[in-house]
Amino acid sequence: MELVMFDMALYHMITISRVFRLPRGNALMIGVGGSGKTSTCRLAAFSSGLKLFTLTMARNYGMDALLENLKEL
User: Fold this and answer.
1) Contact at 8 Å (CB) between 19 and 26?
2) Is residue 48 a contact partner of residue 34, using CB atoms and an 8 Å limit?
3) What DSSP assignment string belongs to the chain?
4) Is residue 17 scored above 80 in pLDDT?
5) How many other C-beta atoms lie within 10 A of the C-beta of residue 19?
6) Per residue in 21-36, pLDDT tens?
7) Positive/negative CA dihedral, 21, 24, 50, 39
8) Is the pTM of this model over 0.85?
9) Using CA atoms, how far apart are residues 14 and 10, in angstroms rounded to an integer?
């Protein structure tokens, strides 16, 4: 994956890594599409030695789909 890194991207990656190291640490990233949230989170998880699990939302995503995703996790 090719990334363009700049100061704020590194800052966000370090912040996400620190959240991952907390007991029961989790984060909700909100922003416009194409801003690099997924890439930054993947890079932070890789640098922390963690496996990343992502939920993919769809129009028909409901409680049953959430429970299936939790079973996979």
Assistant:
1) yes
2) no
3) ------HHHHHHHHHHHHHHHSTT--------TTSSHHHHHHHHHHHHT---------TT--HHHHHHHHHH-
4) yes
5) 13
6) 899 888 888 877 777 8
7) negative
8) no
9) 6
